[in-house]
Amino acid sequence: MTATADETRGSTHGTAPTPLSVLDLVTVGAGRTATDALRTSVEIARLAESRGYHRYWVAEHHSMPGVASSSPAVILAHLAAHTTRIRLGSGGVMLPNHAPLVIAEQFGTLEAMAPRRVDLGLGRAPGTDGATAAALRRTDHLNEGADDFPQQLAELIRFLEDDFPDGHPYRRIHAVPGPIQATSPGGVQDPHRPPIWLLGSSGFSARLAGSLGLPFAFAHHFSAQNTVPALDLYRESFRPSAALDEPYALIGVSALATEDEKEARRQVRAAALNMVRLRTGRPGLVPTPEEAEAYRFSPMEQEFIDSWNANVVHGTADEVRSGLDDLHKRTGADELMITSHAHSGDLRLRSYELIADAYGLPHD
Fold it and tell me: Which of 53, 99, 206, 210 has the smallest number of CB atoms closer than 10 Å to its CB?
């Protein structure tokens, strides 16, 4: 059974211009553990649910000490056990890293755990460096996976819907939990499958999502210059489908709200130092603001910092609200998915609370 538009579209609350959601990288700060980060994720998910955020997604990354989200399905199962209503999903699963059958089984299991509140967001990038991607995919031919993405996507959908045609080599293979259980003797399984989203930071996935009539998520938080062109391409390419009768696009946006503007700048600078190290092949834990203040950036690094931070909405809650409102006006996004990066898990949690307060989101 194909997912419906009602599961895709969120509701606005308070004075927010559009539904607000959360993207979590399960960031690990220096002096903290992955256990600490995962506990923070549970706290943020609970807060997001109680304050009217629409969905909570986890992003797949690998071989990055400061990002503990290498296994989205495992984390989502943990979050499902600690929440009851908020939509949970991948933002995303990097499909070329996995066999489509495995993803169908994982998300069929999640759907059974949390019926009708699971999203399957898919990307075609590796979510890591080339060497790690080769280890994940057991091949050095990395372009092959990305180039084959439409075929992998089609295969995954076939497994999720259990509708390989007669004569296909996979006709007798079934993703379980899944629709086959509903058609087996005595079967009472709900044949519903999680809605599929395509994720991207360029035009490829925008065009593919549009042509298939799927919802689209754009990574504005690290590809801001491509946001408007990609959304335009998605809308121009869109063809109505069983999932959607009109386009629906969310954008990921990096935002951090604190009580004090100076503290926001300190935290954002530390997160930017983490990105400098990642981009130069030195990934590590998210540094403390004190370490970032003591670090002497080269002119090239400072140029990167300035460019990166220009796309991070940060400051007091009112300043962040104003920045998010402006971004919504510029892009026309149907949903804003906020990712907050800071060394401290408590600050990340507080940021989502301050943003909710600034928009007058409800208290459960």
Answer: 99
